[in-house]
Amino acid sequence: MRRIVHILAVLSVAPVTVTFGAVPASAAVTVMVDSSPTNPDAPVAGSVVAAVKSRDPGKLAVRTLTGVNPLTFGQDFTGPTGAGPNTGLSSPVWFNDPCWKRGCTGTLAEYRLDHAQLDGQGHLVLTADRAVTPGARCGPVACRYASARLSMLDWEGGEGLSSWAQAGGHLEARMRAPLGKGLWPAFWTVGANSAEVRWPASGEIDVMEALGDHPTLVEQHAHNGMPDDGFAGSPTPPAERHAHDWAPDIDFGGSTTLPAGQTIAGWHTYAVDWDAGANGYLKWSVDGVVTRTLTAAQAGPAWAQSFRDPHAMILDLAVGGGEWVGEPDAGTVFPARLEVDWVRAYRNPMADSVGRHCG
């Protein structure tokens, strides 16, 4: 069940309590901003503002930003069953990322656009199954599964050009993920300049990734380092590698444990707030609760190299991935589904306005 609450646009750092009638604790509450005829500087109509449900039944404490925070990308995946991921958009944003050459860090899945479709109920579904194209290769081995990896970088037809990218802001996706060993769902970003500056030197922000056999854990990371010769199938010549003074590697982050009784199989909103300034930060959150922070000072020289330039978003459901992920076992059920309710990006971070406790 989902309840949508509309409020009049306001500008305030103080919480505004909205009474809307009893709502079951399991309901997902989305707070939308209505236009304000008297306040032209209020958040744009339709914006989702940070909200924390109070302990009083039927009340919601809403905290808006002190200023306009426009939505720069938003997709709620409305469309008929079987439609593709770009349905409803004025131009394609999501592209298949085939991730050839080394099979995407050891995954065993062939990535195809036909494995990312709308379910007709407002969700995008990335499906992993065994319907592999005959002869498909995942790096040095034959692919054993087919799945979807959607990127805002067009590697198949656009030489890695980005359809959408942004430096800083608030990025979020509401998703529920499949369980099972060897399944590796993720919502993440890479530098939009990845065609010129190879990963991981271009930077990576893992807003959410998870291992299907660890259902209570959410992985949140930031990566940077020497360029990888196998990224996107475009090797970096050795001469080019040594022509740059790359910053030291960053492998920041770790696991966040979900509240008692919750797993990645339930609906959760995964987000990162990113201030891309010289003294900026990354703040990860789950369901509005900030879970970890990386500052520019902590990142050192790598911050300027990898986290001040625009990034593009990626959604994928990988299968297998070296020792960390492992391979599916007899208990892993196929087809497996990663369901996405929405993806949104805002121009400015919201972390300072997000409540740290959801009652």
UniProtKB/TrEMBL annotation:
Keywords: Hydrolase, Signal
Protein name: Glycosyl hydrolases family 16
Superkingdom of the source species: Bacteria
Keyword Amino-acid biosynthesis assigned: no
Residue ranges of every copy of the GH16 domain listed in the record: 75-351
Pfam families: Glyco_hydro_16
Signal peptide span: 1-27
GO-annotated biological processes: carbohydrate metabolic process
